[in-house]
Design brief:
With 440 residues, this protein is mainly alpha-helical. It is built from 16 helices and no strands. It is globular.
Length: 440
């Protein structure tokens, strides 16, 4: 999984010319298909040749199937901008896609392949992704983003634990909560960087006035308390102690979201959807706090995090990246807005299905078909982008750095001196990546 010394064109294989293309395309297709399979599976109308229980298969494929694909597409598009190195593409990217597809097949038909083989093939994907990401980040001396790789490694541990727990205990409970907790922390970390950054860029240009608060101590406290609450939830999802920490974390993240001036982005749906997606993070904390006291079903808070925060945020990031990296205007078309409305409707319907048992069947159908429609339409948008060449060069184009970045500070937030220091570090990283002539 090493970067090449010169950027190949891959004109015959545009699917593998950039990291986001295969994983966003296949991830969106799989997200829609998995839900359409889950609905008749839930009602007992079909069966799968999997050693996992129907509910566990559904949870696993959304948590460790769909989401790692989107995370990989994001990382392999963002890392070249963090490090100044060439992106992973071509045959190495094809190999990763093949391993991801093999994992989906082995897990779904694990009654034939065996649970151990399914675990090894499935877990090998996250292992390869974490290894490739670590190598690129370390080679580019971009130490601050190693925290993303650490969380990715925890997701790998949760995936392996899922298979072990399901085999020896009959169902996976603790490993599910561990995997969900890692996803929530990734959203809090990455979303906490890109949402205020994108919002600030747009407000400075289109709607001057109040700007998002820069990342600071309050954000660190909110993330730390959120991590503590998630740890408590993993160990003991019920009880007054867990309920209290979850409630505090929810309130802190709610205040954090309010500091990002999301109310001033209603004119640009491409930004507004990011704020709506992040709003499901504190909503999930509060719902799980109520569930810890026995006042609300547990699945409500889980789906607020997964269908709401993870579903909406990943779809929003995929649609934005597809536009930004193919030279299109960064604005939400009517089709894109319809996609956003469908995925939000799916998340709300799934949460409400827990509250209203009398209407649960109708709400589940609404949630499933709205979800599938959103991701299948997104698949068409991603596929249409193949006719356009990515606008990011081997060492990061301007549009790419505006679309997907975590490390570059904003002038208004941190000052010109810090921006200049960041640019110098990036220049040094680029110089280190250029092969030197041997000394004579």
């Amino acid at each position: 999984m090493t970067s090449r010394s010169h950027p190949p064109t891959h004109e015959a294989w545009p699917l593998f010319s950039y990291g986001f293309r295969p994983f966003f395309l296949l991830g969106s297709i799989y997200a829609g298909l998995a839900i359409l399979v889950w609905l008749p599976l839930f009602y007992g109308e079909i069966t799968l040749s999997s050693v996992l229980a129907p509910r566990d298969w559904h949870v696993h494929e959304m948590l460790f199937g769909y989401l790692p694909a989107v995370i990989t597409g994001f990382l392999f598009t963002a890392i070249p901008n963090w490090t100044g190195r060439l992106p992973i593409r071509g045959k190495p990217l094809m190999g990763l896609v093949a391993v991801w597809l093999a994992g989906r097949v082995c897990v779904t038909f694990s009654a034939h392949s065996g649970w151990l083989a399914a675990m090894l093939v499935d877990a090998s994907f996250l292992l390869l992704v974490a290894s490739a990401a670590s190598r690129e980040i370390l080679a580019g001396s971009n130490w601050r983003n190693m925290k993303v790789v650490i969380l990715l490694s925890l997701l790998l541990v949760a995936n392996a634990a899922f298979h072990l727990e399901a085999h020896f205990e009959g169902t996976a409970e603790v490993s599910i909560r561990l995997g969900i907790a890692v996803i929530v922390l990734l959203i809090a970390l990455i979303g906490g960087r890109i949402v205020p950054s994108f919002t600030r860029n747009w407000l400075v240009r289109e709607n001057p006035g109040r700007l998002p608060a820069p990342f600071g101590r309050f954000d660190i406290v909110a993330i730390a308390v959120g991590a503590l609450a998630l740890l408590s939830w993993i160990v003991s999802p019920a009880g007054i102690l867990s309920a209290g920490i979850l409630a505090v974390a929810g309130l802190l993240h709610l205040v954090r979201l309010a500091r990002w001036a999301g109310d001033r982005t209603t004119r640009e749906r491409l930004l507004l959807i990011l704020h709506i997606g992040y709003a499901f993070v504190p909503f999930g904390f509060l719902l799980n706090a109520a569930a810890a006291l026995g006042q609300f079903p547990t699945s409500g808070g889980i789906h607020a995090w997964m269908a709401g925060a993870a579903g909406v945020m990943t779809l929003a990031v995929m649609s934005r990246a597809t536009l930004g990296h193919t030279g299109q205007q960064l604005t939400a078309s009517l089709v894109t807005q319809a996609i956003y409305a469908a995925v939000v409707l799916a998340a709300i319907s799934r949460i409400c299905a827990v509250l209203e048992p009398a209407y649960s069947m109708s709400l589940l159908h609404i949630a499933a078909f709205s979800w599938a429609a959103a991701f299948f339409c997104l698949r068409a948008c991603v596929r249409a982008s193949f006719d356009r060449q990515p606008q990011a060069s081997a060492i990061g184009a301007k549009r790419c750095s505006l679309t997907l970045r975590l490390a570059q500070p904003q002038v208004g937030a941190y000052g010109k001196n810090n921006q200049k220091m960041w640019q110098n570090r990036r220049l040094k990283s680029r110089l280190r990546s250029i092969p030197r002539r041997p000394q004579r």
